[in-house]
Design goal:
Elements lengths: L11 E2 L14 E12 L10 E17 L3 E6 L2 E6 H17 L2 H7 L5 H14 L3 E8 L9 H16 L4 E2 H15 L7 H8 L2 E5 L3 E4 L7 E6 L6 H13 L6 H19 L2 H17 L5 H12 L4 E5 L6 E6 L4 H10 L3 E3 L9 E5 L2
Parallel strand pairs: 4-6
Antiparallel strand pairs: 1-7, 2-3, 2-14, 3-6, 3-8, 4-5, 8-9, 10-12, 10-13, 11-12
Helix pairs in contact: 1-3, 3-4, 3-5, 4-5, 4-6, 5-6, 8-9, 10-11
Length: 364
């Protein structure tokens, strides 16, 4: 049994592990963190800056190569068996839908629970080739909550595939490969923010033009996450925002204002100015209300957190339900968490700024 971590230096990795077969299969385990968006959800899809942080709850991907070319996916009580040819063809089909702008067809495919990871695996096979595999995920991240459970599953799979098939990939390349999963999960419209945050770890800035990059900060923020328990469909929320935007040509200006908030927040984060960051979170929430992605459940938790002394609070992710995030001082963290619980939410106090995707174990 071997244990190792993947570090940013060197920028790529390669592991030589010999021939794997279904009998006596070698095991690779990778791990990727949840994320929370601090600034810029929805605006990021309109060329604006967004900022996220990795969280200390993780998803593990266990991958064993199989020489017969079959591919099996397992997660919780679900499983699916296919093969490499079908996965490569599926990736090509989704590419065709994307090129045609047929998001309805992509949303139809997303009814398959494993469609996002099929697209990641199929894209890998199209680019690099590779063997069949048995892939299983185990997660601490609540699915559908806005914490990036899908991004963590795709990011951990991307690293496992590259390692198992002896393919050199930079961290940027892994994040881009994992992003294909979010394209399916988000109904054809997805930035690389979630998978960038899960792959890079720490605090991550992201734009469509420049991709993900780490943001150096003096110390990680102290956060409380409030889960409404309402599970909104990301692709449906994205479609609703598109309809809202199409209703008035002047509405696009709100996304530029959200981008400006994120730019100012970037400066405050690097300075460790938490009061300034909190005030900008409140401003960001005002714009999220304007585009119609907040909800009564989210507003109740946000108001409870602010009343208990949070420096700032906003929804995080697609909205319509899911989670909100509150920035606090260490001294106020417990009081804010209690207030969220008392308002009917589930409070999560997890470490922010944790390490991104990593190797947990490999045989070889």
């Amino acid at each position: 049994m071997g244990k190792s971590r993947w570090n940013e230096t060197p920028a790529c990795f390669s592991h030589r592990s010999g021939l794997f077969t279904c009998q006596g299969m070698s095991l690779i385990i990778t791990s990727a963190p949840a994320k929370i968006i601090l600034f810029g959800e929805h605006a990021v899809n309109r060329q604006q800056l967004a900022i996220a942080t990795a969280l200390g709850v993780r998803t593990q991907c266990r991958l064993q190569l199989c020489a017969d070319g079959r591919v099996t996916f397992r997660s919780a009580n679900l499983s699916c068996r296919t093969d490499r040819t079908a996965l490569a063809e599926f990736a090509q089909t989704i590419n065709t839908f994307r090129n045609a702008g047929d998001y309805k067809a992509i949303r139809f495919e997303a009814r398959d629970f494993f469609a996002p990871v099929k697209y990641v695996f199929g894209t890998f096979l199209t680019r690099y080739g590779g063997a069949g595999a048995v892939v299983e995920w185990r997660t601490e991240i609540p699915p559908g909550s806005g914490l990036g459970s899908g991004a963590a599953a795709s990011s951990s799979l991307a690293l496992a595939l590259a390692l198992a098939n002896e393919v050199q990939c930079s961290r940027i390349e892994l994040a881009e490969l994992a992003w294909h999963g979010d394209i399916i999960a988000h109904g054809g419209i997805a930035s690389g923010l979630d998978t960038g945050a899960s792959t890079f770890g720490g605090i991550t800035r992201y734009t469509v033009a420049d991709g993900p990059a780490n943001v150096p900060i003096p110390q990680p923020p102290t956060l409380v996450i409030g889960d409404t328990g309402v599970r909104a469909n990301t692709s449906q929320v994205n479609a609703r925002v598109n309809d809202w935007l199409a209703g008035d040509s002047q509405r696009g200006a709100v996304f530029a204002r959200m981008g400006d908030v994120a730019q100012r927040a970037l400066v405050r984060l690097t300075q460790g100015d938490w009061h300034g960051v909190g005030a900008l979170m409140n401003e960001n929430q005002k714009y999220l209300r304007e585009i119609g992605v907040s909800s009564p459940e989210l507003e109740r938790l946000i108001n409870a957190a602010l009343s208990a002394g949070a420096l700032g609070a906003k929804l995080s992710g697609a909205g319509g339900g899911g989670v909100m995030v509150a920035l606090t001082t260490p001294a106020q963290q417990t009081a804010v968490a209690d207030a969220i619980q008392n308002a009917g939410g589930r409070a999560l106090t997890v470490k922010a700024g944790v390490e991104g995707v990593q190797v947990v174990h490999h045989d070889g």
